[in-house]
Amino acid sequence: MAIYLSCEWFVNAVEWLGARLNVGKMAVGTILAAFGTALPESVVTLVAVTTGATEEAKNIGVGAAMGGPLALATVAYGVTGGMLLLKRRRERVRVLAGTGMPEAGRPVSGPDDEALGDAKDMKRLAKDQKWFLPIFIVKVALGLVAFAFKPVLGIVFFAAYAAYFWREMRGGREADGEDEELEPLKFQPKAASPATWAVVAQTLATLAVIFFASQLFVKQLDAIGPMLGLSSAVTALLLSPLATELPEIMNAVIWVRQGKTQLALANISGAMMIQATVPSGLGLLFTSWKFDGALLWSGLITMAAIVYLLLTMRAHRLTPARLAVAAGFYLVFAVGLIPILS
Length: 342
Fold this sequence. Notes:
- The protein is mostly helical.
- Helices cover 75% and strands 0% of the residues.
- The chain has helices spanning 2-21, 25-37, 39-51, 55-99, 119-142, 153-170, 196-227, 232-244, 246-257, 261-286, 293-314, 320-324, 327-341.
- α5 (119-142) packs parallel to α10, α9 (246-257) packs antiparallel against α10 (261-286) and α11 packs antiparallel against α13 (327-341).
- It starts with a helix and ends with a helix.
- Residues 103-110 have low confidence and may be disordered.
């Protein structure tokens, strides 16, 4: 509950922060919101790879760097699709209740079959995935080989995110069309235009709550896992990424509820770009970045999920139901993980 409420205040603050910084609506999701919500997972990697006393301790950071993109590409997108399905069906029920038309009389091709956004929206979302996929493929490939200058390539991953950051921020506000009216800032609910200090204060305060609440959740899962008979490896690969990516999932739920689907999707795709580059760069610099079977399996499932999404986007057939299917890839990962770890 603490994570959900802090995320609700965070998305409220970050939209105002985007207006203050004069960045485009999509950049609010891909850069500003993604930077904040990707913080817990990035910190887990940073602490593990820089302070780990043993190679095994450092490899926790490598697992976090791989688990984050997996959870985002599957569970986060899947939950977003599920929320969109629920929202559209509730709207349909309200319309049918208002018109008195029985549910059985509605056309077969209903709102659930409608694609998400127009061609322009799909093109922008697909572009993020096209940035992510080749970077992620290189990231996985580097985990299968060993050579002397591999750590230096960590800097290349930082440079890749810098290029993505520049592209998103350069887009500006004009590419996003008309501005939407923002909800009042929670810190100043009666102000039509809140003070900049209040926007910054609410952003930082909610980020702090999100960070500490997420870390507490991870520790609880680490304790619950053995109680349920799960090994530490299973807990680290299956449960911990879900906890650290919970802010992105909560943000998506909130923005879908507010009718801001593109922001919800942009937050996930932007967080994926951070997870594909920054934690990977840290891992390459401070660890051997060597993958075992479980890490390789997580990489393959992540790539499969992204290819599936790209194909549906390219065909302009990405619907809420097809987006929800992405969560199924996480179930495939969980099932395939059992023989690998046994």
